[in-house]
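Entry for the shared binder. Reason: the reviewer on the internal report wants the predicted structure included alongside the sequence.
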Amino acid sequence: MKLFNRFFMWMLLLVIVGTLEKSAPITYKAPEVVAYDIDARVFIDKKQINIRDFDDEEPLKGGLVPHHNVAHQMISDFYEILEKDVDLIILIGPNHSGKGPRYQTVGSSYMTHFGRVIPSPLFGELMNNDNIMKADEVMLRGEHSIGIHMNFIKAFYEDTPVLTLLVHETGGIHGVDRLVKNIKDFIGDKNVVVIGSVDFSHDLSLENANQKDRITKEIIRNKSYKRLFTLNNDHIDSPTTAYLTIMLLREMGYEHQDLLSESNAALILNRPSMKATTSYLVYGYKKSEEIQ
């Protein structure tokens, strides 16, 4: 009888342990530090950085900016006129691989050649959304859409935390507006800049790229933002990134847009006959009707 009771207790214990294991949430152990493998010191000279004084003008609150190192001067010019005294930087960029969930957030520190970029604790708030997961570390280490910007962020900002969201295009516009509202809710009254990492026309001749860019610029100029989701890689590499960025800035009250600069790899590299080019459009957003 005692043997039976002991056997029964062991079986009961195994059932309880098994139940706890099944009910326990599956956790993802993020790497402590992620490093981007391009040496950004080649095109970011901290000694030459111009930290603007905004006493007489309103700084940018965010916008769309390239992630291709060919356009490094355009990226640097954007950061110069982006507000610096902020509580939080939100960085949104495409997951070019398309691997994993549509939305992935970064909870790890990011090592650049200028030092470590710290993640915002708010990444946990993003994780409260059922469709947002921690970023896959293999994808993250090679994803230049945010890697290059981490270097600029560390060069232009001291220790401002960064909330990073990587996206891919599965699902189109479905659920994106709801995500914008959710992000705005947990940001609250924090002073935030929003950076959307986007390259435009891909793999076309300069002439064809210019034609595609005219269509894209018309859509953005007319604020027909949902039409971005009708575009493919001939026009833009991440409609979701562009839409999320613009709508989040609008939700925060920054609706005035200005096309700050535009170019193409063929022009920057002085190779106008290139068969496969990349276009770059830089948009800035703020409240006022004019950018000084």
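Summary line for the report: Residues 5 and 185 are 55 Å apart (CA to CA).
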